[in-house]
Amino acid sequence: MNELLKDKSVIFFDVGYTIDHPASGDWMFTNRFYEIAGERLDECTKAQISKASQAGADYLEREHRIRNEEEEALQFLEYYRIVSESLQLGLTEDELTEIAKDRTYNMDNYIIYPDAEKVIKTLSRTHRLGIISDTWPSIGNQLSSLNVLQYFSFATYSFELGTFKPDRRMYLDALQKCGCDAKETVFIDDSPRNLEGAAELGITPVLIASNPASDVDVPYTKIYSLSELL
After folding, report:
1. 133-191 tens-digit pLDDT
2. How far apart are CA 14 and CA 221, in angstroms?
3. 3-state SS of the chain: helix, strand, coil percent to 5?
4. From the centroid of its chain, how far is CA 143?
5. pLDDT of 108-125, one tens digit each?
6. Which CATH architecture does the domain made up of 3-19+113-229 adopt?
7. Is the dihedral of CA 161, 165, 167, 169 positive or negative?
8. How far is it, in rounded angstroms, from Cα 187 to Cα 182?
9. Domain locations along the chain
């Protein structure tokens, strides 16, 4: 086992780019979105797409406290409507609804990293495991479809608190649920900013750089695969 974990009781995991990654290469622009938008999207510049995506993300951040998958699908419907209008894609209501439902209910949108299930299962024998994730109500189905949900004892999800990492409420909620002092815990995430928020409360941060965009210099432990934890 990694020396870092020997004196720890709890390991918190992020999900995206830690346990899994998007099948399409983008969390919101799913394969179904690309299929339906098709050539209309090809006519847009990267700058235009980035601006439209950010406008949609701003809406999601403002309206993030939701209760169930039905509300999630409606929220994604509005996200894709904002994107479509911003890029003048002309997506119909039926097309927007299909894309939103696919984003909510299609678990093929997520691909688990090859070593993730084995590592999580192994670590669950020696530590209590938790999740701290910026996510939506479908996360339960997502983790279940990846065959790892059963290994986690507690979870802190952003949609339940209505806020995102690195808001300290996310980490305080996680610590309260596990019942441990922060110094007894580790948090693995692909975002240095999120890890800084955890470190400020005494949680030991570990950067996972399975996503090349996360491979940056940080003043704490960096790994490239969950297998390095074993």
Report:
1. 999 999 999 999 999 999 999 999 999 999 999 999 999 999 999 999 999 999 999 99
2. 16
3. 50, 15, 35
4. 11
5. 999 999 999 999 999 999
6. 3-Layer(aba) Sandwich (3.40)
7. positive
8. 10
9. 3-19+113-229, 31-107
